[in-house]
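## retry 2 of 3
previous attempt timed out at serialization; input unchanged, resubmitting
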Amino acid sequence: MPVFEEEHKCEEFDQWWIFTYGDLMTLLLVFFILLFSFCKTDVEKFKSVAESFKPVPAGSPFFLEGRESVLEQLVRQIETSEISEEVFITIDPRGVVVSFRDTALFESGSAALTARAHKTLNRFVAYLFGLPNDILVEGHTDDRPIATAQFPSNWDLSSGRASTVARFFETEGVKGGRIRVLGYGQYRPRFRNDTPEKRALNRRIDVVIKPQ
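## retry succeeded, writing output
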């Protein structure tokens, strides 16, 4: 009699999770590629700003020789100086942005520099003498309204504070023609004004050292 092989039954595929796993790995790969591209963009932005700064003037007493650019020297020296705890430094297409917390310079609702502010700004202004670059002094507030006889609005307060800092720089020897003053009020916050801590960070003076 003929011998028939036993019919082979295919096992049911039950490893469907592997497709989800494959999709997850693909998404993770795309995610990290995007992160890398963003980081690369930031590096190129930093380089483009750095290259736009002129070399250190010969014999400048404020900078060490051997650095690649004034930008790098400035950031490094401020970050290791006595005022490092009073400021926050960022780099953007405008240049080097040195942000002073309002509590480091002013009493609440005031545009008069405190004694502490004079010491802080005296240390900072030394870094400006060795630079030919133009300077923006920008005032910022949080979103809480102010309505006093001296400052009817946050615009007035932010402009007044920025002007006070600019005048201080000029009296200390920085040429007034290099300085511009802007008051943004509450309209350019760094963070949402939804906690006291974030409001405090939004109340600031930004000193922007422009690319040359």
